[in-house]
Design brief:
single chain, 184 residues, mainly alpha, two-stranded antiparallel sheet
Length: 184
């Protein structure tokens, strides 16, 4: 049978420990053993700072994601294509290491877009958006040229035979339009 020993704690510390212990473990002994095992197994000191925790990293990711969404919405609204510098600025800034703090999770890692699937997908989406914008612009120009051409077509009724369509355009203008369409 196990024997017990008394340890003296300040009252508020003992109350905090009892509350914590009741929440996660059946006994105070089990709680203390688990805590000690954690520090010994991971070879860390309870006085060490772990740097950014899960919440701060999640908030950082949310802020960056929101900034990216805002930038993409702005590009959609104004039709402005992003520059490489804009994208690098978005993903470049990271939390700064404070003096005496444990190393940050992202410290020492180089930015490598080939390994980062998310960045690769963003780049592909931007390229697709650029292609779509170019196609949309070219379609608008072609539509305008076609409507101008249709406006120059007139219905001519002859005295004999069926009515026919006639293009009222100089040969030079027609050749310019033909060359422009062939280049596209």
């Amino acid at each position: 049978m196990d024997t017990f020993s008394n340890i003296r704690f300040k009252k508020d510390t003992a109350q905090r420990f009892q509350t914590f212990s009741r929440r996660y473990f059946k006994t105070h002994t089990e709680t203390l053993q688990t805590m000690l095992d954690f520090f010994i197994y991971n070879e860390i000191s309870p006085k060490e700072s772990f740097g950014p925790n899960g919440r701060t990293i999640a908030n950082l990711i949310k802020k960056r994601f929101n900034a990216m969404v805002a930038m993409l919405k702005n590009m959609e609204k104004h039709g402005v294509l992003p520059t490489k510098a804009m994208l690098e600025l978005l993903f470049e800034s990271s939390p700064q290491k404070k003096q005496g703090q444990a190393p940050l999770l992202m410290a020492g890692k180089k930015f490598d877009p080939d390994r980062d699937r998310f960045l690769k997908k963003v780049e592909e989406a931007i390229a697709m958006e650029k292609d779509f914008t170019n196609i949309k612009r070219d379609f608008g120009e072609l539509r305008t040229d076609f409507l101008n051409l249709l406006n120059r077509v007139e219905l001519v009724k002859g005295s004999f035979g069926r009515p026919r369509l006639q293009l009222d355009m100089s040969q030079e203008d027609f050749q310019k339009l033909k060359i422009k369409i062939e280049k596209q």
